[in-house]
Each structure stands twice: as structure tokens, then as C-alpha cells.
Amino acid sequence: MDKEIERKEIGRTRSGLRYGWTTGSCAAAAAKAAAQMLFSGQEIRQVRLMTPKGIELYLDVESVTRMADCVRCAVRKYSGDDPDVTDGLLIYAKVEKRSGDISALRVVLEGGAGVGRVTRPGLEQQVGQAAINKVPRRMITEEVERICRAHDYRGEVKVVISIPGGEETAKKTFNPRVGIMGGLSVLGTSGIVEPMSEKALTDTIYLEMKMLRENGYLYCYAVPGNYGADFLTERLGIDTDLAVKCSNYVGETIDDAKLLGMKGLLLIGHVGKFIKLAAGVMNTHSRTADCRMEVFAAHAAMAGADAATAREIMACLNTAETVEILKEKGILPDVMQTVMDRVTFYLRQRAGEGLETGAVVFSGEEGILGQTKNAEKLLRLTERQRKEQE
Prior knowledge:
alpha/beta; CbiD-like
């Protein structure tokens, strides 16, 4: 089998998607290889790493630099079939002897260029520390300690992880939104990248809200994406620092708010997505459900529209066309009133007791099309927090 194919075929999901390995695995493998070369004097071109998931990796070692008291080398990130902007980056580890013959072995781990710094509370690491999560920290430390003990070294060893290009790549990630600045995070709980981008997104939603909660906020906004964020700032004049981007995962966002003990969540989204909430659809991606025209047609009928109008709505390709028809028929306000009543019902059903939820639905052409009765209240409470925190 071709070496390149063999290297990357470490496993597949049941749907046939290829696994990859995390930045944490790369950092641990690079640190292990550098330590082996430092203490043995041998050249290492491939390193074996057992991941927390139990999958054994054999990773190629690249870009080796050897000096008297330190070795620096890299392992290349591979993301399998998961869409990941870090795919192909070299993750470097520099291992350096600091001082020998002390009472106990000590590994000092630091982040270098391209590794982000934590600037806000609520993450695994303290403010000011390198954004190297606890599982990769443990993997790196254990691998280096094992090499040191094998060579009977008792002293301090410094390990510096760096990612060339990490600062620029980080701008394409959620890192700046969660307070990791200047570079990428070194991540991974299993050591293996599973091609589950949905889980990565929902984990990020939770983390963003968790940070707001730990900074004293009990009310926040949720917007599906840039349309909602832009509407929040440009139309409502509200800063997005208290807004969590929920993508299509409205239900999971409500669940997170409940779990974290939030008191209020105001959802602000385009009618193309949020019309689905009136049917109880809490994942607004089109592959999950596309009931937009069905919802509009049903509520138009409730507002007195005839069968011909319902058929016309069902033939629409987008919600802009539908809104225009409802305006022409003079029933848009009535339709949106009953739509928002159903949105209120389903949001309450998902949230249960203890969390107040509301929604604002808009379009680019019309502005606010509808809002729940408590939307203004939630907006006031959310903005009051901001003033109290200033």
C-alpha cells in the first residue's frame, strides 16, 4: 500500500468518512520525537503515539533542527474528512534541557508563536496562559517525562509548542470570539479528529455562552449567523458582544442556556430560518426540514386567504416572494402575529421552566416582521446587564 495512503487511513466512521489527528496529537508526537533525539542523539523520522481514544498513530517527523541542548521538530496536522482550517499546518515542538541533577524531573510547557493566549475567563486555561488544553498538556508532558526517565534524566525540561501561520489561521476560527488571541488552540480530548463538524459547532456555542455566564451575564442574544449579527448592530444599534452565534442549532442553544443557568435568551434571525420555529423545528438547516412555505400557507389560510393564495405561496422559491404575496393580500401582520404565537409556544416547550425565551424575526427588505410579546422586555434586560457591567 502507498505510504501516504497508509499514513492517512487510520480509520473511518460508519458513513465512510476518514478520521484525522488533532493538533494536540501533533504537539505530543513532535515533543516525543524531539525529546528522543535530544537524549538519544539518534535521528527520528517517524514517531509512535498512542492516543486517548486508543488508536495508535505512526506520524512522520518533519523539519528537524538539532542543537547541543535542544531539538526542534514538527508533525503535520491531518484532519481526515473534517472541514478544518488547520489541516496541513506544521505543529512544532522544541525540547530543551534547562538544568540537571535536581531532586525531581520537571517539564515546563509553554506556547510559542502561532499558539493563542487566553484573554478571558471561562476556558480550561487561566487568563494569560497559552491555549493548550488539558488533554494535550497531559499527553505532551507524559511523553516527554517517559523519554527523560528512560534516559535517567533528573532535571528541568522546557517544551515550547509553536504553529507557524497560526495567528493568521486563527482569524478564520471562533478563537477571537471566545477570547483566545494571537494564534490557534492546541486541542483534542481523544487525540483523533472525528469528521463531526456539527459537534464542533455545538461545542463552540456552549463555550461562547459559558463564557458570558462566567462573566456575570444571565441574559444574552442568539443569532444564526452574520445576517442576524448585522441586523443586531445596524438595525437595532446593539453591540454583538452579548450575542452567541447559534448557526442552525436553535434547540441545542436553548438547552445550553438552561444547563448554564441563564435567565433569558432572545433569538434574532432571518425569516428564512426562523419561520421554521413556528412548526417546532429546532434545527433550521434545510436538510433537516424545509417547512417554510407550509407554515406560511397554513397561517395565511388562518388569516382568511383562499386556496389559490395558498397554492401561490406553496409555489414560492423563497420567503421574500411569500412576504410580498402576503403584503399584496393585506394579511402580512395577521400572519406574522399567529406565526409568532406558535414560535412562542415551541420556544417555551423547549426551554421549560426557569429560562425565558423570545424571538425577533426579520427580513432584509421589511425589517422586523414579527416578534414575541416579551422580546422588548428581554432586550431591555440584556442591555441593562451591559450597563451594570461597565
